Amino acid sequence: MAVGLLSHVVSDLILGKPALPWLPSNASVRDALRALKQLGDGVSELSIWDCSGKICSHDIGDPLAQSDVGAHINCRCVGKVCMQKIVCHLASEKSLFDFPEALDVPVSSLLEHNATNPVVQHVDPDASLLEALDLIARGVQNLVIPITRKSIHNVKQVKGSTTLKARSLPANLNIVVPKDHGGQEYCWLTPEDVLRFLLGSISIFSPLPALSIEALGIIRSDVQMIEVGQDACSELELIEMACQDSSAVAIVDSTTSSPGTVHFVGDISCSALQTCNELASLALISLSAGDFLAFVQDCRKPPQILVDIIRTRVHEKLGLGMRNSSHIKQITLKPENVTFLLHKLEMWEESSSSEDDEYGSASPNGPHDLSHKWHSMHLRNSRKGFSVRCRSGPIFCSPRSSLIAVVLQALAHREQYVWVTREDNSLYGIVTIRDILTVMFNHIKTFN
Prior knowledge:
Blueprint: H1 2-6, E1 22-24, H2 29-39, E2 45-51, E3 75-82, H3 83-90, H4 93-97, H5 99-104, E4 120-122, H6 129-137, E5 142-146, H7 149-157, E6 186-189, H8 191-199, H9 213-216, E7 225-227, H10 236-244, E8 248-253, E9 263-269, H11 270-273, H12 280-286, H13 289-297, H14 304-324, H15 326-329, H16 335-352, H17 370-384, E10 396-397, H18 403-413, E11 417-421, E12 427-432, H19 433-444
Parallel strand pairs: 1-2, 4-5, 7-8, 10-11
Antiparallel strand pairs: 2-3, 5-6, 8-9, 11-12
Keywords: CBS domain, Repeat
Protein name: CBS domain-containing protein
Domain CBS: 390-446
């Protein structure tokens, strides 16, 4: 059975995967934002491509951008963007002072440039499963693989008449589909895909599945965290780093915990921000970490108290920036750049005014007293689920949880990580899919 597993190549793992929607590296952040909104459910990331030929030189989505067969050899996927990256970019102080300009910068400026440890890497479809595991263990998050005729043929054999098709996209969607690469389509393989594939042969890894994650030593204690009362934007770099690592930033409360421990409240992650839009950047730059957590849970119709806080603090930051920051003084402030954002906040107010929040008049501290109520809101929502597309809140496990239990939990929720907490809900650490695959990869190497 082990020999059969090791004989697999990466093309066996991509059967039926849709072609990647993508943007050229010279596209703007505005283009990426529009594409993420229009792609909708199931797509949280866009691949960014750099082509030396004519493929990416036309306007995005231009049908004339089609090139000759074989031209795809000049095209390389150079990275990926998600809503979290865009929100962090727009939450910078410079972006606040010229929001339209921040939307018009090339999307490639949001990518991390690390030639030594790239997060995206092209892989031959005949590369072995071991090679894929080795790349993931070294930090690669997405393996870009060309969809071959062999893959299409194999899918057609499944259930007789199944045909591989690219994702069905809205007719007015202004993005490029990978077939523009000289007729070549690409998909990518994620650590989640590999782990799901290995789950079918989990008995090979005995006794690892039955061992606790604590015994295996895969719990990371170097967790990125923000105090719940701290300004969310004060740790903007941490949030950006978590996005690059396919991890998350923990929101913690040390005031209710014993010395040396912190109480886990929630997290900020790519999946948490997937349902938000560019206005989340104003919340990030204006709210505390706890209030931002409450905002993200219902970013389409945030509580009115948060809308008021955001509006007030945006005005305050503009005023303080002009007086106290020598860097900001060099920027020509255009009031209209923020006016249209505040107008959208007013639209939020109109849409949410007709609905009473459940923590409204019943609160002993007054309507929507989020300074005291965000904590109970989160614990209820994270445990029982809340109305957010593709996410029901952070997932938890115990240090004594078995490896197989954590694997099933991560795959069921389609998360790249699982938080590890003690019985008193204090934060112990985090386990990532990459750590799990590294342990399994080291076990497989003993077969040879």
